[in-house]
Every structure is written in structure tokens, then in C-alpha cells.
Amino acid sequence: MWRRVALKAALLFGGLICVFAALTLGLNVWGERGVQAERAADAARVYAMRTAETAMRVGAMDHDAVRAVVEETARQDQILFVKLVDRDGEVIAERGLFDSRWTRPDEQLVRESIRRGAVGVSSRGGAGHVSYPVIVDGRVVGTVRVTASMDGAGAAIAAVMRRSAIATLLGLGLILPLSGLYLLRAMRPVRQMVEAAQAAARGRLDSRIDLHTGDELEDLAQGFNAMVDRLKGSLEHVHQLAYADHLTGLPNKTAFLEHSRSAMRAGGREGAMFLIDLDRFKRLNDTFGAKQGDRLIRLTAQRIQAACARHVQALEAADKASAESPDPESPDGDASYTTVLARVTADEFALIVAGPAGFSAELIAAEIVSAIEQPMEILGQHVVITCSVGIACFPLHGGEPDILLRNANLALDEVKKAGGASYRVFDESLTRAAMERVTLEHELRRAIERDEFVVHYQPKVSARTGALEGVEALVRWRHPDGTLRAPGSFIAVAEESGLIAEMGDFVLREACRAAARWREQGLDIPVSVNVSALQFERQDFRRKVQEALAEAGLKPAWLELEITESTAMTDPERAIAQIEPLRALGVRFAIDDFGTGHSSLSHLTRMPFDTFKIDQSFIRELGEDPNARVIVQTILALARSLRLEVVAEGAETAEQVAMLQTLGCNIIQGFYFARPMAEAALLDYAKTAPRQDGERPTATIVSPFGTAVG
Ligand code: C2E
Ligand code: MG
Ligand code: MG
Questions:
Q1: Please, which pLDDT band fits residue 357 given cuts at 50, 70 and 90?
Q2: What pLDDT was estimated at residue 275?
Q3: What confidence tens digit (pLDDT) does each residue in 625-652 have?
Q4: So what's the pLDDT on residue 513?
Q5: Helix, coil or strand: residue 63
Q6: Could you read off the pLDDT of 47-72 as tens digits, one per residue?
């Protein structure tokens, strides 16, 4: 490209030189012609003067002596033409060849010379012309007209042209290469700049222009360098924003997937991807504030990194030791490990460890779990936080990072479901379960749209009298395949997908309406409704309950809401804030599945509940496990001291009922008395159940909730 530019410039210069040379040549030729014309005119003048003087001396034009001079003049080589003209313009004598080109100038020259009595000179048509007046006795009697050729003018002009041509060629030969060279030199900085700009355009931002020309080019180069530096800085910043987590400085999910891909591509490698999630982080974050939450995240990142580095160092040391005493059967290969830790969501980290075959992903996970479990100090308190780890190995569980991440996530979900603080390696059954979950979720959505849910009611019975104390509303799914499905088969998915809220609202409204209907028939049966964690945490929880009561026209005192122990204890303060206003209206609250959560006694005493429902696992074990008996006894004692009502769930045998009675538990909900049933069956049951005084009712059963004190 640069040669082309130089060539064009040389051609331009060459062209200019040629034009200049042509102009000079023209001027020279023109000058030379002038000189030659003057010479011819001078010669003509000399001969004309000699002839005129001869005529003036003899005193006449028409004289032999004059004719003799004319003859002699005409013989001269340079003289083309000579004639004598009298004052009237008549030609007296004439010699030589007269060219027709001269006719007009000739007449004019002759006329003027006679009229003015002066010498007329002109050079035209390649010749010099003179008309010399002949003056006798002070009077012009005629004129001698002589024309001399420009002999030698052609040769002189040819010489001039030759000289010019040589000078032009010399000039071209010298100037063209020199100008080309100069141009290439002069273009070098520009070339450097163009190359740097092209490199920058290709993304190579390390290219710089090093110019010290001391002129505008140097300024331009410095400007370019500054611009590229700024661009590089901006790009680094953008990269940082796009690929790094600002809190920990670790790569983010996008960067993690890229790093993982290259770690996995490094040939013949094995490894594992870990998804590490902090258990109950949200609660800690809410308790201690976002700033401490951030600190906790950073600390966690450091701990994971340290644990992983420790483990990998130990592995490398072991690999080195075995390399020094090589096992002939162990394959040679890249013995280094690649680890990448990233923060992928608020409290979730992803880690990939790739290296030589044979290391244990579970050991690494165990180390991470135990590193995180070490107490952390937050605002002067020692806090123990646990984590759950899902593991997917490659190439066994997937060849692409996103698949591994998904599988690690499935494994993580299982750890979470089992209570967290542990790890689990993915296996194919998890994929199947996940697929089934997705299908079920889809079916549940459709079930809500098509009103496939119905409510059944299970009686709560007085152990002493067999009287109906109330009912618990339990949802059932009338599946399109004709089966009636119990919540165990779908409630978990409904909770995970959030569908539980809509379903729960339906049960709440339906149960309130049913209780109101029963009252219209004279059956005052209090109804209990299960409230999921999602419903309970919602801002509009209170409004929804009030709406259901108002819509059914049911008094709040005939509604009890059951909240599981774990839901109530996740955030006791919030639970109290949710419960208090409704309780003030008269709605009762029961703590469900009591004994399975981790209630702290201090919280329990402050909780505004009316009823404890002892979890059925303790009742089931009553006959066999002495501990179960102790637990039931303790719960009953606790309830008594807190002046709460107790309902024992899941009593199936007469033996269990008898034991519960012995222990002082009066209200029992269990298959022994009645299973959950449809509304019509319940009405039959209620009408035939004994009254509180132990007798069969004749018409109305009035059974408010026991003796509890609110
Ligand atoms: P839960 O609230 O503890 O309900 C009591 C469960 O124990 C019911 O199971 C009931 O059928 C069962 N049960 C009662 N007596 C016995 C017994 O003697 N033996 C045995 N083996 N089981 C007994 P169900 O109806 O399958 O409901 C299971 C759980 O599903 C409920 O436990 C509750 O947590 C949840 N659930 C049911 N309906 C709803 C609802 O409408 N909303 C919400 N959020 N959860 C619901
Ligand atoms: Mg319940
Ligand atoms: Mg229960």
C-alpha cells in the first residue's frame, strides 16, 4: 500500500516536472526565435541601407548603379528578396522570391516607410523585413525593401530543445527516486499510526505509537496512546462488571462457566463441580443487617478458598511423592489442579476442581462444610452458619459446565431438603425426580384452573367422651385419572412452586364456608385450616383470612389456623406480628407438628398460640419408645403451664388412645376415631357423635375449643 502511495506521489512529481520542462522549453524556443528574427532584420537593414545610400548618392532610384547593388544584394545567401519601390508605390526593380505570406506586412511596411521617411522593421513568417527610405533633396522618393531569412534559427532551436530534454531527463531520473524515498520516510510515522489503529481495531489494546517527531504527528501519537489507555481501562472496568462479583472479587456465574469450560477442555481431565449454598442465610442477613451479611459472604468465600487450596496442596504433595517413586501402571499426564471459585447468587458459590484422575470430591466437600461451620464473630456474637453442598463430577455427570451446574443444583436441593449442613453427589435418580416434579407442577397448575381440589375434614375428638371437638380441613386432589390424592403426593411441589398459596386460599375459603353452612344446620363445629409458610409470610395474610371469614359470614372464634413449628420459628418476631392482629379478632392459632421443629423455650413462651398439636411421630412411637412417652409428657406439661390446649395427632390404636388419656391428653385426631372425610360424611358423623357429656346428640352439638386460655 505504501509503495502505491509513493508511486502515485512520484508520478505526480514527474508530471509536474514534465510540465515545468515543457514550459521552460517553450520560453527558450520563443526567446531564440526572437533573437534569430532580430539578426535577420539587422542583416536586411544592412543591405537595404547600402542600396538606399547608393540611390541617395546618385540622386535617383531608377539608376544602373542602384540596380547593380540590388543585383548584388539579391545574390547574398541570407537575402530572400529585394525590391525598389518609388514614392507612388510603383516597383522599379525586384529580385528574389516573394512569399505571399508577406503581402500585407510588405505593403504596410512600404507605405509607412514612404509616408514617415523612416526605416520600417518587422520580423514575421520566419524572416526579417526592412523598408529603408530613399531621401533625395530632403524628399522621400521611394524605399528599398529587403527581406532576410532566419538562417540557423532551426539549428539553434533544436539545440535549445536538446538541452532542455537532457535537463528534464536528468531531473526526472534524480528527483523521482529521491522524492519516492523521501515520501516513504515522511510517511513512516503515519504508517506507524495506521498500523497501531488497525491493531487497536482488531482488539489489541497493548499497541502503542512511539513517535518523537516534535511536530503535530507526535501530538497525534500521544493522543492516540492516551485514547487507547482509556479504552483499555474502560474495557477492563466493563469486564470487571460483567465477569466479577463486586462483593468478593470472585468471578461471577458467566465467568465461572467460561473458566469451567476451559478447565474441562484441558485434555483427559477429571474433576467435580460443587454448588455451595449457605443455610438460612436470609435469616442471618435479616437479623444482623446487610452490611454484616456482606461480611459473612466475604468470609465464607475466603474459607471455601482456603479449604480448597489446603486440600489441593495436599493432593499435589501426594502426587509428587508418588511421582518420585513412579508406579509403572499409573498413567502420565498433567499433574496440576485447576480450581475456580465463583459467587453465583447472593449466598451461593460454585467451585470447580479439575485435575488428574482419582481425587475425592466428597472429601473436598466435607472439608468445605466443616470450614464453614467454624463459628464466625458478628457484632460480638459467635454465630455458627452451615452450608449445603451439591456435587456433580465430570465427565461422569456431564460434559458441559451448565449441565454440571444443573446436576450439582439437583444434588444441592436434596441436601437442603434433608436439612442442610451436608453434601451430596448427584445421581441419575435426581434427574428423574426433577422431571417428575416439573410434570407434577404442570398438572397442579392445571388442577387449580380446573377446580380439581376438594376439602376433606378429619374430626378431633374428646378422648374422654368421644365428642366432636372440631375438624381439621385437609386438601385432596381429585385427579383426572379418577384417584383422590392425599397432600403427601403433591404438597411439597406445591410449596416449591408457590402454588400452595393459591391452593391454601381455596381451602381457607372453602373451610370457612363449610363451617358457616354447618352452623346454619345447627352444627357448631370449629374448623382448623393449615397455613403454609408462603401464605403465612405474605403481607396480605391478615386480609385474606378476614376476607374468607367475611365472605362466609363465619365468626373468627370458629376458625383455627395451624402453622407448623418450623414456620413459626423461622422468624418468631414476624410470626408474632402476623398472628397478634388476627388473634385479637378471635381467630385461634395452633402450632402444628409440634416437637419436630427447633423451638427455643424463650420464644415458645412468647408465642401467642392457643393449641399445640403433638406430631404424629411421637404418638406412633408411644407404645414402643420410652423416649416418645417422655416427650409427650413434657409437651403436655409445657402446654399445661402455658395454659394451652393439646391435640394429639395420628392415634391409630386403642392402646395409643389409652396411653394418651393416661398422660392427660384429652383431644385426639387419629384414624382410631375417624379418617379425613368428605363434607357429607362429616355431617353424618357429627350428627351421630356423642355429645360432650358422653351422650349421643339428639339435635345440636355445641363444641367450642376446650378450656384453653387465649
Ligand atoms: P397435618 O396438618 O399434620 O395433618 C394431619 C395429617 O395426618 C393428615 O394427613 C391426616 O390424614 C393424617 N392423619 C391423621 N390421623 C392419622 C392417623 O391416625 N394415622 C396416620 N397415618 N395419619 C393420620 P394428610 O391429609 O395427608 O395431610 C398431610 C399434611 O399435608 C398435613 O399434615 C398438612 O401439613 C398438609 N396439608 C393438608 N392440607 C393442607 C392444606 O390445605 N394446606 C396446607 N398448607 N397444608 C395442608
Ligand atoms: Mg395440620
Ligand atoms: Mg400435623
A1: confident
A2: 98
A3: 889 999 999 999 999 999 999 999 999 9
A4: 98
A5: coil
A6: 999 999 998 999 888 889 899 999 99
Q: Ligand 1: which residue has its CA nearest to atom 19? A: 650
Q: Cα dist. 162→35, 151, 169, 182 in Å?
A: 18, 19, 11, 30
Note the pLDDT of residue 1: 63
Give the closest residue (by CA) to ligand 1 atom 5: 649
Give the architecture-level CATH label for domain 452-703: Alpha-Beta Barrel (3.20)
Give yes or no for a contact between 430 and 409, defined as CB atoms under 8 angstroms apart: no
Closest Cα to atom 44 of ligand 1: 532
Please give the pLDDT value at position 2: 63
Give residue-wise pLDDT tens across range 551-580.
999 999 999 999 998 899 888 899 999 999
pLDDT at 696 over 50: no
Residue 701: band (very low, low, confident or very high) from pLDDT cuts 50, 70, 90: very low
HSE of 367, CA atoms in CB hemisphere, 13 A: 17
Q: State whether the Cα torsion 388-500-536-642 is positive or negative.
A: negative
The domain 253-321+335-426 is placed in CATH, from the list 3.30.70.270, 3.30.230.10, 3.40.50.300, 3.30.420.40, at: 3.30.70.270
- Taking the CA of 492 as reference, the closest ligand is 1
3-class SS of residue 540:
coil
| Region of residue 482 (phi > 0: left; psi between -120 and 50: alpha; otherwise: beta) | left
Question: Is 452-703 the same fold as 2-156?
Answer: no
pLDDT above 90: residue 184: no
Average per-residue pLDDT in the chain?
88
At the topology level, CATH places domain 2-156 in Beta-Lactamase (3.30.450)
Q: How far is CA 160 from the centre of its chain?
A: 76
Cβ neighbours, 10 Å, residue 322:
12
Length reported for the chain: 710
Q: What is the whole-number distance in angstroms between the Cα of residue 474 and the centre of ligand 2?
A: 8
Q: Which atom of ligand 1 is nearest to the CA of 671?
A: 18
Residues 6+ apart with CB under 8 A from 357: 270
Return phi, psi of residue 93, to 5°. Answer: -145, 155
* Closest ligand 1 atom to 456 CA: 25
Taking the C-alpha atoms of residue 99 and residue 105, their distance in angstroms, rounded to an integer, is 11
* Atom 17, ligand 1: residue with shortest CA distance: 650
Of 474, 496, 536, 565, the one to substitute when testing ligand 1's pocket (max ligand atoms within 8 A of C-beta) is 474
Residues 122 and 126: their CA atoms lie apart, in Å, by 11
Residues around ion ligand 2, judged by CB within 5 A, are 530, 562, 592
Cβ–ligand 1 contact at 510 (below 6 Å): no
- Give the Å distance between the CA of 483 and the centre of ligand 1: 18
Say what angle helices 428-449 and 401-417 make with each other, to 10 degrees.
Answer: 70
Q: How far apart are CA 109 and CA 85, in angstroms?
A: 11
Contact 532, 495 (CB under 8 A): yes
Cα 501 to Cα 494: distance, rounded to the nearest angstrom: 8
Which one-letter DSSP state was computed for residue 277?
E
Q: Is 300 in the pocket of ligand 1 (CB under 6 A)?
A: no
DSSP at 426: -
Using the mean position of ligand 3's atoms as its centre, give its distance from the Cα of residue 437 in Å. 24
- Residue spans of the domains in the chain: they are 2-156, 202-242, 253-321+335-426, 452-703
pLDDT greater at residue 707 or residue 140: 140
Residue with cell 519601390: 85
